[in-house]
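WP5 quarterly update. Target: RNA polymerase sigma factor, sigma-70 family. Source organism: Jiangella alba. Length: 122 aa.
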Amino acid sequence: MYLRWSRISRLDSPDAYVRAMLANQHLSMRRSQSRDRRGRRWPGAPSAVDDREPAVADRSALADALAGLGARQRAVVVLRYYCDLSDEQIADALGCSPRTVRSQASRALARLRDTATAEELG
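Structure tokens (predicted):
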């Protein structure tokens, strides 16, 4: 991106191009990793959480919950709730339709709810 910034900056929407590029790169990296890594903790995540640090516990729980989602569902959740993008912007970034974005978000939230409920019960 840095080497081609002069060309990218002339586009109608360079921010959207960069978001799409980052989303595609993330999805490509996740696809190239083996399936056996699913469920492992993210690099740098604390192995033991100190009860005096609820913010760390919340971040760790969020990282674990997001790691349980598929790559596209995780991308939709992050772009929607962290980057505050609209369905149309997310669809442009991921190269899919807004309807697909909504269905992926719905499935991701249902899975996150199921995971939270299972942990609370178990």
